[in-house]
Amino acid sequence: EGVQPQEYTVVKMEVLPPFPTKLGPLEGKKVFLGAATLRPETMYGQTNAWVLPDGEYGAFEINETDVFIITERAALNLAYQNFSRFPQKPSCLVELSGYDLIGLRLKSPLSFNEVIYALPMLTILTDKGTGIVTSVPSDAPDDYMALQDLKVKLAFREKYGVKDEWVMPFDIVPIINIPEFGDRAAEKVCLDLKIKSQNEKEKLAEAKRLTYLRGFTEGTMLVGELAGRKVQEAKPLIGAKLIETGEAIMYSE
Ligand code: A2H
């Protein structure tokens, strides 16, 4: 953990009915996967959500109506930031594993894909953010490689019970142009560095460093209300709009 607090936007990815049996007790509530992101301006390009198969999650009451599926650690932090039905006390309705979440149908704010699915990612850390990540393969090297792994490795899909139709129809959505990297920066950098899988940590760290540096300072939005504006200008405006509309909350740790 760093010394500086990290400010995340937690995007509310709505779980669409029908709920699987495990989520039965949540019937009648508004249920969301709470995805922690540092890049709210990229939400147009979402293709799926990521969960850690062996991760421990819970369905926590955020208020009278809304339930967030996140780690217990994040629920405790949120409870101290006024996001719990009961002050400073997480209220868990169901304990869940990542396996229970794979295949959930989701509707996520700003996404051009109207329905997306929860899929397995093996490199999610449970001591950071909410343990749920939203996937933007155009601009996040980790997301691009994890989605590639699922697309090209049938054995990987089978191991986690991932159906082809949750993965195959979802292509990169170009949302940001970066002068040196084009409009699919994560893909270009992963190809340039010859990254083979989501487990190549060092190469992926380098890929992230490269895309960041240029993306934030020189990137231009290609889509949405702020098309044509710099990423730097769009990021706080889009983040604020998601909060105003109730489609996201701020979370710090
Ligand atoms: B970012 P930092 Cl387009 N485990 O969101 C692993 N990764 C996690 C995580 C966890 N528990 N919680 C959040 N993250 C990811 C968008 C994005 C992100 C883009 C480009 C880069 C990028 C879409 N995925 O992050 O260590 C989330 O992915 C690159 C680091 O707190 C979150 O923002 O700095 C970011 O990592 C937070 O990482």
UniProtKB/TrEMBL annotation:
Keywords annotated in UniProt: Aminoacyl-tRNA synthetase, ATP-binding, Ligase, Nucleotide-binding, Protein biosynthesis
Protein name: leucine--tRNA ligase
Full-sequence portion shown in this chain: 261 to 513 of 1086
Source lineage: Eukaryota, Viridiplantae, Streptophyta, Embryophyta, Tracheophyta
Organism this protein belongs to: Hevea brasiliensis (Para rubber tree)
ATP-binding keyword on record: yes
Keyword Cytoplasm set for record: no
GO molecular function: aminoacyl-tRNA deacylase activity; ATP binding; leucine-tRNA ligase activity
UniProt record similarity statement: Belongs to the class-I aminoacyl-tRNA synthetase family.
GO biological process: leucyl-tRNA aminoacylation; post-embryonic development; reproductive structure development
